[in-house]
Amino acid sequence: MSEFxxxxxxxxxxxxxxxxSSVGFTLQFSVTNVFxxxxxxxxxxxxxxxxxxxxxxxxxxxxxxxxxxxxxxxSVLMNWLIFSRFIRHGLSRFGMVxxxxxxxxxxxxxxxxxxxxxxxxxxxxxxxxxxxxxxLLTTQELIVxxxxxxxxxLTHVGLKYTRLGTAMRGLSVNSSLARASxxxxxxxxxxxxxxxxxxxGIGAVALFLDTGAFGATTGSSFLIIVIAAAVLGGVxxxxxxxxxxxxxxxxxxxAAAYWNAELKNVVAFxxxxxxxxxxxxxxxxxxxxxxxxxx
Amino acid sequence: xxxxxRMATVGASALILAMSSAIAPAWGxxxxxxxxxxxxxxxxxxxxxxxNAAYGPEAAAGCFPAERxxxxxxxxxxxxxxxxxxxxxxxxADAVPAANRLIASTSALVGVLGGGSDDATAIxxxxxxxxxxxxxxxxxxxxxxxxxSYFWRILSPDSAQGAAMxxxxxxxxxxxxxxxxxxxxxxxGSAPAAILGVGKIHLKLVxxxxxxxxxxxxxxxxxxLVSSKPQAIISEADPQTSxxxxxxxxxxxxxxxxxxxxxxxEPNWRTAVIGAIGKSTLxxxxxxVVAYEPANAPAxxxxxxxxxxxxxxxxxxxQWESDPYSVADYDSVVIMxxxxxxxxxxxxxxxxxxxxxxxxxxxxxxxxxTYAAGKKALAQGKHIQYAGASGAIIFDRWHNAGQGFAIExxxxxxxxxxxxxxxxxxxxAI
Amino acid sequence: MSAxxxxxxxxxxxxxxxxxxxxxxxxxxxxVTGVLNFCFIIFQSxxxxxxxxxxxxxxxxxxxxxxxxVGLHLPFPVPILGAMVVGGVLAGVVxxxxxxxxxxxxxxxxxxxxxxxxxxxxSAQVGLFNGxxxxxxxxxxxxxxxxxxxxTQIWVFVAFCVACMIVVxxxxxxxxxxxxxxxxxxxxxxDRAIEAxxxxxxxxxxxxxxxGGVLAGLSGALLVEFIGAWAPNGWFYPETFVFFxxxxxxxxxxxxxxxxxxxxxxxxxxQAVEYLPITLNPSVIASLxxxxxxxxxxxxxxxxPQGMFPERRRRFPVPGRAAPPDFSEELSPVxxxxxx
Lengths: 295, 430, 340
Hints:
The complex is a heterotrimer.
Chain A: H1 3-32, H2 39-55, H3 60-88, H4 93-115, E1 129-132, E2 135-138, H5 139-161, H6 163-173, H7 175-180, H8 185-211, H9 218-233, H10 238-258, H11 264-278
Antiparallel strand pairs in A: 1-2
Chain B: H1 5-36, E1 40-46, H2 55-72, E2 81-87, H3 92-105, E3 109-114, H4 120-130, E4 134-135, E5 151-152, H5 158-171, E6 176-182, H6 187-200, E7 204-211, H7 219-227, E8 232-236, H8 239-252, E9 257-260, H9 267-277, H10 279-285, E10 286-291, H11 297-309, H12 324-343, H13 348-351, H14 355-359, E11 366-368, H15 371-379, E12 384-388, E13 391-392, E14 405-411, E15 414-421, H16 423-427
Parallel strand pairs in B: 1-2, 1-3, 3-4, 4-5, 6-7, 6-8, 8-9, 9-10, 11-12
Antiparallel strand pairs in B: 10-14, 12-13, 14-15
Helix pairs in contact in B: 2-11, 2-12, 3-4, 5-6, 7-8, 8-9, 9-10, 12-15
Chain C: H1 3-32, H2 40-55, H3 78-98, H4 104-124, H5 126-129, H6 141-145, H7 150-176, H8 179-189, H9 191-196, H10 201-227, H11 239-250, H12 255-274, H13 282-303, H14 333-338
Helix pairs in contact in C: 1-7, 1-10, 1-11, 1-12, 2-3, 2-10, 3-10, 11-12, 11-13, 12-13
């Protein structure tokens, strides 16, 4: 298979793994207007929850599901205990960014203190490689791609056709109007945080499966890439997150194949900067007129 | 500006905090002055945080067993010894104040295990200035001709390590090799020497890759590697990077033979890579090129015995059993202790000169393998040569030891030497 | 006092001066003008690298184990001045890219990404600044200037740092407590009003971005000349956050407050944590430092968002009318401060 075609193919695999995490980030951001830089630590935490379960004998996919639920709970708790209180206290969107950074630092370092500097791996059966149209993919990668596709479809359908989804979209475009229309803000916001935590969990396990080994810092080191994909596609849009993930995934693989493997991330970041310069709201975005955070 | 009482208290307490952090070392040192009449301190000045957070526990796994053995033999000049872990934090800007604080906070400090590749050039001058011997694990070329009299390096420099890896490739019969090194300071230490060496001994370098560490995917890099069809890969990268790379290599092709360095003998590395490609694959493909350790049963046995017994201070001690850095750190502490015995002084400025006297061969010297044996021989007025768990340690005039190299494979729960590289073979690759 | 204790105190003194200068720079950008400069650390780093490569000789002479650009072996104080220039120029370039009509959080994102790009590029391009191993063997300028004992040389350097800090303090005072400072605060609080009055808010943001870059470069130069080495591991993007905490804890806009915040957060927390009993695993201690930094931020943002020493609220009575009501305690300044 030509190098170019395989680079594209590899980019798609990377994108599938990134997409889930990016959608989680973007969904929560669009509903609450909180730029959550502690997302990486939620990913790390859920990755380790899955490790604990997996190590105790549960198979990896069930561990992923349970850990994802755990991630949802953690996110809801973080919002309830910390973020929403600061929002109600009068902190604006800007100050909230710093709050999320601080929270992320505390979480990350607590995990590090507990888990130490060692590396861990999931207990998975030895991989079987399948040849799919010239691309070599393992069973795990296929399952992750399938999960990503299912999740993206569910998110898209959910946002468009369910009441909760409509409420979320309403809040994201104009929260005061949505509130005035009788949208139960707190519940919808909690649902958004829960969904974001669940996707963080699934994304984290997918990521950690892909890297083969992971430690306490792995989640936060992927945070920037995840956010880059989300912002590139236009925050608030699930399709945008997928497109962003594809752009990031494919551009990094092509850069690695044809240019400089050490600087492949820089290519993705430069694309992000250029896109934001040309189109400040990202590729697909409904730019919210909101100036305040919603909690 | 209205100064409310709350503000005044906050401001005052901040000032007090800042000032006391300056004064505290003075208190600390006077406290230590009383202590110094009893315990002697060896500092473990390595990273306990940052990207190389495993260096600290690794060094502790050498220091605490040595502490145990030395105290069991009656200590040094009647004083017990103790290891003091201190975080070097992983970069020069944080390591320097930490080092200065360490030096200032106790006068009982007699020796340091410190100086990894990420901070050595910044902190070795500090210990040199303070006149405290520092046994360093960095392989950086800048220390190959070090003029710092208090700097000591047991393990081979990166330049020799890289050359040895290419010499090993030749010895093992490979003609087409690829190099894959991570882009952190540790791996980039041996990379240039390895790449140069491959050229010098006329092996074919089919691919030369420097990969960004900690990435999600190396599939394109792996694809390039696979299409260049190497028979063996000379590689060093941190545990996570290696795990990701090799797992994708296993997926996109087969894993060729791997020629690695002491990093691959660290427990973290093995755990990560085994988790990614499986134990049987790793063991069947990996050739570790490491400093030559002669079958030094008594010394090594003393080390592993003390290591097992130090489980309280070294969690899961046995994981460090074959880690060459831990073993070298153990020997370092024993050497410093023996030097103090021979010099009849625990003052670093005095005993530093005696370090070579207890390690380098001299006429009529008794070869000893444990601290107890060495202490006894010294007490009888004899000269000794300590050949420790790292083997014979002979310092050249730049305080570098660096022995020969051997190729090892992991079989049945332990590393076995399958071949030794002669000095000539290594020299051909430099 | 032993030589070792003196060196330790000198270290603390230098680090406090450097942190204060850097925190003031960020205060100018973020505290006074409201620019969320999430790539602040790269300006300090640019200053450090510049000072290093200007004061070191050509790379080829250092027996080839270090690679870096330039290497002009310039005498003191040229490397420091060069560092300040580079800090300002880099700020100008980054400002051009990021200080656009972007949503504030996207702006923050762009700056974060710039910070990551910087560490990636410097690590990958070994020829620039010796890659991941970093530059080392930078000598303290006082060593060649002052012919006295090493201790004296170090104390002279500390005195020089204190002098720099005092000069920067005067500059900051002139900027912040002046009509110009009022314009900057207006940019922070209500940039639309400022534009309506005919001033260009973005131009002012660029100005403070550059001035802040110059000061950050100075802090980096002083730091590298003291430490002697500088490597990418020391300036990853989270490091910016330490300075943000200093500004928030100290009180944004207040020079004295930020200075104390810099001393407490930048140096105090790190040193205080070291005095915890040694039985605690050292890696836990390192994590604790970050946890305390994060907790300090949260605590201050909650109970005292205006910081230890809040900015003075100015009230101008309208002639002929009764004095306007006092809102200084009721309004949360942070809400207005951070809104863009």
